[in-house]
Design goal:
CATH architecture: Beta Barrel
Number of domains: 1
Structural class: mainly beta
Shape: globular
Strand order of the largest sheet: 3-4-5-6-7-8-9-11-12-13-14-15-16-17-18-19
Largest sheet: 16 strands, antiparallel, barrel
Radius of gyration: 23 Å
CATH topology: Porin
Strand content: over 45%
CATH class: Mainly Beta
Distance between the termini: 35 Å
Number of strands: 19
CATH superfamily: Porin
Number of helices: 4
Oligomer: single chain
């Protein structure tokens, strides 16, 4: 370790470590246990209520997940340089989710015309996830999630972020020192590497039904229909200056699991060239408060696929977003406000030629606002509002029972109410109600088959256990 690296660690990181330990001792919390095993710290040091991060949790992630309190297996070369530094016990954990979903009206039977599916759906399990979450080597750490999806009966790689980080200290004017973290991230979902809970990968709702109907589309940077989550791979670089200023650029390419490889016309949403993602943010902390404001975006060119050649014209998507997050973390009371607004401009040259879209130029605009309160991280709730509006396109958004749009519009808006109870540090009970005022363009007969937006109102009960 160089002198400058040692000076940064002692002056900047250790105070945050101390603050995190104080928080951990003050009140309980809940998170992926891998990090608790690695650090020896209670989950409340890094999380308010999982997966929402505290300021210390953000520092931990930006530093590469490498803070540890486990005996190390080490090696050195003939000159005394380190060749190996890994935990003697791997920081692994497991999540099990069991859920019940009930919609306002039963869904149609998938094979018998005129029949209805069972009213209410139990998933046992809803999801089972295995995590490696922690240090790999000095400066190198990872969050790797393998998930079994009970609804899809599919097992595969979920959100994954592998990163390497270094500390740099340098002198400023009037003898003021500055601290800088520079890092490299390798991940499979734009915004999964982000440390604030305003961006889509870790944004609210943190858990929702996988069997209830969802809106017909979303922005590419979002995690809904047509997004890039777990179907791309990207390498990026980031910097974090004086625990205030953040900047990142990451380039993505298609990494679609399953199907044909190399990718061909049987695949869809295939990135042509690279899709750059950018992120800037500023955070201010005082007393028990923190406030972040920022912006992020993504530019991507894709081939529609779906039986058409991956050549010639492409569809172009330009996403630009702003976000803000406020946190108050007291010993008893915790408040959080999250907000993001995403604007996407679409140039659909390929889709128009292939007959998938009617308009060359379309747009989507998404707004999400959430307020949260928890008492001693034991009991709390959230209330959220969401809205998506966009261009009317009668080919891109066609009528179809439940999932379609009768008027070619993607407009959807509604609210989410949620209550959470955490009886133990590794157990969460959640009751969530999602209500729709408009769904895929209309309030009534939105799909052309007689279904109303309120028919998709969803009650979702969840038991979430981590160990």
């Amino acid at each position: 370790m160089t002198c400058t690296e040692h000076r940064w660690s002692s002056r900047t990181f250790l105070p945050w470590l101390g603050a995190g330990l104080c928080i951990a001792l003050a009140s309980p919390g809940w998170a992926v246990p891998s990090y608790a095993r690695q650090t020896g710290m209670a989950c409340a040091a890094c999380h308010t209520v999982f997966p929402e991060l505290t300021p210390f949790g953000r520092e931990f992630k930006l530093n590469g997940y490498v803070l540890d309190n486990i005996k190390q297996v080490t090696g050195i070369d003939t000159s005394g340089g380190p060749t190996l530094a890994i935990n003697s016990l791997p920081p692994v954990s497991m999540n099990v989710m069991i859920s019940y979903t009930h919609t306002g009206a039963p869904l149609p039977d998938s094979s018998l015309k005129g029949a209805l599916a069972k009213d209410g759906d139990v998933l046992f399990p809803d999801q089972v996830s295995f995590f490696y979450a922690g240090k790999i080597a000095d400066g190198l750490g990872a969050f790797i999630q393998l998930t079994y999806d009970g609804a899809a009966d599919h097992f595969g790689l979920d959100n994954t972020d592998i990163r390497y980080a270094r500390h740099i200290s340098f002198g400023g004017a009037n003898g003021n020192d500055h601290s800088l973290i520079v890092g490299v991230t390798l991940n499979n979902n734009p915004t999964v590497q982000d440390v604030w809970n305003t961006t889509p990968a870790w944004g609210y709702p943190f858990a929702l039904s996988g069997v209830a109907p969802g809106p017909i589309t979303s922005a590419k940077i979002d995690n809904g229909a047509g997004g890039f989550g777990q179907s791309v791979g990207g390498v990026g670089v980031y910097m974090w200056l004086d625990s205030h200023f953040y900047a990142e650029i990451t380039n993505y390419d298609s990494a679609i699991p399953g199907g044909a490889h190399p990718l061909d016309s049987t695949d869809s949403n295939v990135v042509q060239g690279l899709a750059p993602y950018w992120r800037v943010a500023y955070e201010q902390r005082w007393d028990r408060n923190s406030l972040e404001v920022g912006a992020y975006g993504l530019n991507a060119s894709t081939h529609p696929g779906n039986g058409t050649a991956l050549a010639g014209p492409t569809d172009k998507y330009r996403d630009a977003a702003v976000d803000a997050q406020y946190q108050f973390i007291g010993e008893d009371h915790l408040f959080t406000v999250l907000a993001t607004y995403i604007s996407e401009h679409q140039t659909l040259d390929a889709s128009v030629i292939d007959g998938f879209a009617a308009n060359t130029d379309d747009n989507l605009k998404t707004l999400k606002v959430t307020g949260e309160y928890f008492y001693r991280r034991k009991i709390g709730g959230m209330i959220g509002y969401f809205s998506t509006t966009g261009s009317t396109d009668t080919l891109l958004y066609q009528p179809a029972a439940v999932t379609g749009s009768a008027n070619g519009s993607p407009n959807t808006d509604g609210y989410i109410l949620e209550m959470d109870y955490l009886p133990w540090l590794n157990t969460k009970l959640q009751i969530q109600y999602m209500g729709y005022e408009k769904f895929n363009g209309l309030s009534t007969n939105y799909d052309g088959a007689g279904r109303s937006a309120s028919d998709n109102n969803t009650l979702y009960a969840l038991l979430w256990v981590a160990f």
